[in-house]
C-alpha cells in the first residue's frame, strides 16, 4: 500500500515538473520565448552575444538560435538577466522591458537598441571589445568604457556622464546633452570633430 501511494506521489511530481518546464520556454522554429523572466532591470552580457533591447510594457525575452544545444547560458535572478555564450556563432537575444536601468557587456558582446530607449536613468558599462549602438531619450545617462570598447550614441539626455579609458571609442551621432561630464582617463589624442571622440 505504501509503495502504491509513493508511486502516485512520484507520478504527480514528475507531471508537475514536465508542465513547469513546458511553461517556462515556448519554442518556435526561429526563437525560444522565455516566459517566466519578468521585471528585468539589469542585463549582463558575456562572450559572443548580440543583444537587442527595446522599451515595451509587454516584457519578454526571445533567444534566437538553438541556445540549449549551444551551451549558452541565460540566467535570471533578482531583476538581473545574465546572458553568456562563447560559441563561434553569435547568440542573438531580444529583451523587451519597461524598467531596464543598466546594461554591462564584456568580451565581444554587442548591445543594440531597437527603437528609441526612453529612460529616467540608464547606465551602460562596456569592457574588453564590447560595443553598443544606442538611441537614447534619457533624463540621466552614464556610459563607462574600458579596454577596447566602443559606443555609438544618438538621441538625447538631460544629464550625460562619460567615463572612458584605454583604447576606447565613442561616436556621437547627433547625440545632444544639456549637461555633460566627460571623464577621459589616459587620453592621448582625441578627434577634433565634436561628434566623434576617439580615445587611445
Characteristic key phrases:
mainly beta, 200 residues, Pectate Lyase C-like, 15-stranded mixed sheet, disordered C terminus
Secondary structure layout plus pairing:
Layout lengths: L1 H23 E3 L3 E4 L7 E6 L1 E7 L4 E5 L8 E5 L2 E6 L5 E7 L4 E4 L4 E4 L3 E10 L4 E15 L4 E15 L4 E16 L11 E3 L2
Parallel strand pairs: 3-7, 3-9, 4-8, 4-10, 9-11, 10-12, 11-12, 12-13, 13-14
Antiparallel strand pairs: 1-2, 2-5, 5-8, 6-7, 14-15
Provide a quick synopsis of the model.
Helix content is 12%, strand content 55%. It is mainly beta and 200 residues long. It is globular.
Provide a count of the helices.
1
Which ranges are low-confidence, i.e. pLDDT below 50, for 5 or more consecutive residues? 10-24, 187-200
Helix content: 10-25%
- Specify Rg, calculated over alpha carbons: 21 Å
Class by alpha and beta content: mainly beta
Basic shape: globular
First-to-last CA distance: 76 Å
Overall pLDDT confidence: 81
Portion in beta strands: over 45%
Word description of this protein:
The structure is a single chain. The protein has one helix spanning 2-24, and strands spanning 25-27, 31-34, 42-47, 49-55, 60-64, 73-77, 80-85, 91-97, 102-105, 110-113, 117-126, 131-145, 150-164, 169-184, 196-198. The protein has a 15-stranded mixed sheet that branches. It is globular, with a radius of gyration of 21 Å. The protein starts with a helix and ends with a strand. A hairpin with a 3-residue loop joins strand 1 and strand 2 (31-34). The chain is built from 1 helix and 15 strands, in the order H-E-E-E-E-E-E-E-E-E-E-E-E-E-E-E. The model is unreliable at 10-24 and 187-200 (pLDDT under 50). It has one domain (28-198): Pectate Lyase C-like (3 Solenoid), CATH 2.160.20. The longest helix has 23 residues, at 2-24. It has 200 residues and is mainly β. It is 12% helix and 55% strand.
